[in-house]
């Protein structure tokens, strides 16, 4: 369901015969507007039933603007950077933030949305969706303030969403391994049914195809944890499938895979280049060697969402769609180009002949 009201500043502008910018200045009191023009705008707004960002037209109380932020996973690792980015962008515009804990419960989330509306917030940011999904269902009911979805895009194309470019990030990861000379890539992701695994798999296959390559083995699907990374890497090695690059769905998987490769006598990055996803500092810096990873630019996601929200508060545009924020490749030692003569792709299979250490 769309989250925009029927009557916008553009409608008021058309009725009054002025520009939307003039409407914004007249209703906010910021900027010079001829008294006759202001009266005409106020009359048009009242006739159309337009509700300004400060309440019904002609009854605007003087108060600070406020935005509500409803988070589905308040204690998740990815939440804090997004919130920090949003707070910074809103503070620069003198907009206060009310934070609500949805706890992954759609009913609780809807309750907070209704509570925020009763408090007269000027807009609502909704962050997060279902685990492993890059999309989510839109809020229900009529909403008289702008709503921006963050991290997980609304399934309604009329809604405005701001998300990391997860697909582009996966493409960067694969292209990086190919650029460092790897030609036989394998990949380890989370559950096959989850959108996150599907998107990253498709990106991996397409980038390889564009380089005239294909996966060295079928993608391995399991869990988004370190134990699965370890188990999957051992499975790959014991299958005697030659591979020299490993694309991992997140940094936990990459850390587990790197540890398993070391246990089997293989060197990272000389034998296998390993790259993760998320750029979680505890994982990437604590690993040996330090992990290359894709940074989701989460503070920038929060800033972009808040900036778009501020623009909508100043003037309803009614524009929807998905805004993607570019992910960043952060190369480290785990994908360093092997020194000439040190790569040992052929012995990799030889090292796996004994099956006594299978599993994990």
UniProtKB/TrEMBL annotation:
Pfam families: LacI (PF00356), Peripla_BP_3 (PF13377). Gene3D superfamilies: 3.40.50.2300, lambda repressor-like DNA-binding domains (1.10.260.40). It comes from Auraticoccus cholistanensis. The keyword Transcription applies. InterPro entries: HTH_LacI, LacI/GalR-like_sensor, Lambda_DNA-bd_dom_sf, Peripla_BP_I. Residues 7-54 form the HTH lacI-type domain. Keywords: DNA-binding, Transcription, Transcription regulation. GO terms for molecular function: DNA-binding transcription factor activity; transcription cis-regulatory region binding. This is Substrate-binding domain-containing protein. It comes from the Bacteria.
């Amino acid at each position: 369901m769309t989250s925009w009201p029927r009557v916008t500043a553009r409608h008021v502008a058309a009725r009054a015969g002025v520009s939307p910018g003039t409407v914004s200045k007249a209703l906010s009191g910021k900027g010079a507007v001829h008294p006759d023009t202001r009266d005409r705008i106020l009359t048009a707004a009242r006739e159309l039933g337009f509700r300004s960002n400060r309440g019904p037209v002609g009854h605007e109380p003087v108060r600070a603007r406020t935005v509500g932020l409803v988070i589905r996973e308040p204690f998740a690792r990815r939440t804090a950077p997004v919130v920090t980015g949003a707070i910074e962008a809103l503070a620069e515009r003198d907009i206060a933030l009310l934070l609500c804990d949805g706890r992954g419960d759609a009913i609780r989330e809807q309750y907070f949305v209704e509570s925020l509306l009763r408090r007269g917030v000027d807009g609502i940011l909704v962050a997060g969706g279902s685990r492993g999904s890059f999309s989510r269902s839109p809020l229900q009911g009529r909403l008289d303030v702008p709503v921006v979805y963050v991290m997980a895009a609304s399934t309604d194309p009329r809604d405005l969403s701001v998300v990391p470019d997860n697909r582009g990030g996966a493409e960067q990861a694969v292209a990086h391994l190919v650029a460092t000379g790897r030609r036989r890539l394998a990949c380890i992701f989370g559950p096959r049914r989850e959108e996150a695994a599907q998107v990253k798999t498709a990106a991996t296959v397409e980038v390889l195809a564009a380089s005239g390559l294909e996966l060295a083995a079928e993608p391995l699907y399991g869990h988004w944890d370190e134990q699965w990374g370890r188990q999957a890497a051992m499975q790959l090695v014991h299958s005697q499938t030659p591979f020299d690059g490993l694309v991992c769905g997140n940094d936990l998987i990459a850390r587990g895979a790197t540890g398993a490769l070391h246990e089997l006598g293989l060197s990272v990055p000389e034998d296998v280049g390993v790259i993760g996803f998320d750029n979680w500092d505890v994982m990437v810096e604590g690993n040996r060697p330090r992990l290359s990873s894709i940074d989701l630019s989460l503070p920038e996601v929060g800033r972009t969402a808040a900036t778009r929200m501020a623009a909508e508060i100043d003037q309803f545009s009614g524009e929807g769609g998905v805004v993607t924020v570019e992910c960043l490749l952060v190369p480290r030692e785990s994908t360093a180009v092997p020194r000439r003569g040190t790569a040992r792709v052929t012995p990799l299979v030889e090292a796996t002949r004994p099956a006594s250490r299978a599993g994990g």
